[in-house]
Write a structure and sequence with these properties.
The longest helix has 41 residues. Strand 1 and strand 2 form a beta hairpin. The protein has two domains: 79 residues, Winged helix-like DNA-binding domain superfamily/Winged helix DNA-binding domain (Arc Repressor Mutant, subunit A, Orthogonal Bundle); 167 residues, Four Helix Bundle (Hemerythrin (Met), subunit A) (Up-down Bundle). The protein is built from eleven helices and two strands. Helix 5 crosses helix 8. It is mainly α.
């Protein structure tokens, strides 16, 4: 469902969480980050927002108040709520700090951050990518295809593919956030590739996942690009969980053997 009044293209889903106003807050903030909402733009009235987000007007008021306190919007009496000219560097620094903290302590939360950012990048790339952008994505895809027996080249090509998709979104703020992500996501990509490629035919399967994302972007299909990138990153999350379980099992077996040896 989209908010169309005042030219907004904000996509929202029915909200089913306890802290509803925070979800509304983050949705509007993220729409500023990806360029859907511009400085000076007027938000729809409370009743329209409440209907679109399928929440109460009280929750909308709380979200708007939080946005105003954060300096993201300005509420003018009798006129409405307007997007302020935000200091993007400050916003990027705040979000970057959150990314770094998440990666350091919670790999699953880090993957969730990647999913949110990269799925939107893929959708925007499907609309905004230039021929130069598409050529770069394709080059990294070709490099991946040649790297079946070269782990480091394959890792670099994989990381560069995701980086180029973010660049093709042509959203400066999202791209700056991706710069923070790139060096910090190599570990999860390496672990996932090692796990996948220990099984038959998984190299070709992984390559095809990236090919499908590229095709969706190059054919100007934002919904499919978003869906494929989301699925790709959800699969990574599941495989990291499997890796963790296997490691824990091996650690348990090793500790058990050591305990028996000490008896």
């Amino acid at each position: 469902m989209s908010i169309n009044e005042n030219g907004l293209g904000l996509v929202v889903e029915p909200i089913k969480t306890q802290k509803i106003y925070q979800v509304v807050f983050e949705s509007i903030r993220d729409s500023i980050i990806n360029g859907e909402l511009k400085a000076g733009q007027k938000l729809p009235p409370e009743r329209v927002l409440a209907k679109r987000f399928q929440v109460s007007r009280t929750s909308i008021r709380e979200a708007l108040m939080a946005l105003e306190i954060s300096g993201i919007i300005e509420i003018k009496s009798s006129e409405g709520s307007f997007i302020r000219q935000i200091e993007t560097k400050t916003l990027i620094n705040d979000l970057s700090a959150a990314i770094i903290k998440a990666e350091d302590s919670m790999v699953y939360e880090m993957l969730e951050v990647r999913r949110l950012i990269e799925s939107e990048c893929a959708a925007l790339a499907a609309v905004r990518a230039s021929s130069f952008n598409l050529a770069r994505i394709r080059q990294h895809l070709d490099d991946m295809a040649k790297s079946e027996f070269d782990e480091e080249s394959g890792l670099s090509a994989d990381v560069n593919f995701h980086y180029s998709v973010a660049q093709a979104a042509n959203s400066p703020i999202l791209f700056d956030l991706m710069k923070v992500l790139v060096n910090r996501m190599k570990g999860t990509i390496r672990a996932t590739r090692c796990y996948r490629f220990s099984q038959p035919n998984r190299f070709e399967e992984t390559l095809n996942e990236h090919k499908d994302i590229y095709i969706a972007i190059s054919s100007n299909n934002p919904d499919r690009a978003r869906s494929l990138m989301t699925k790709h990153l959800i699969d990574i999350r599941e495989e990291i969980a499997i890796i963790s379980l296997v490691r824990n099992k091996l650690t348990f077996i090793t500790d058990e053997k050591q305990s028996q040896a000490d008896l």
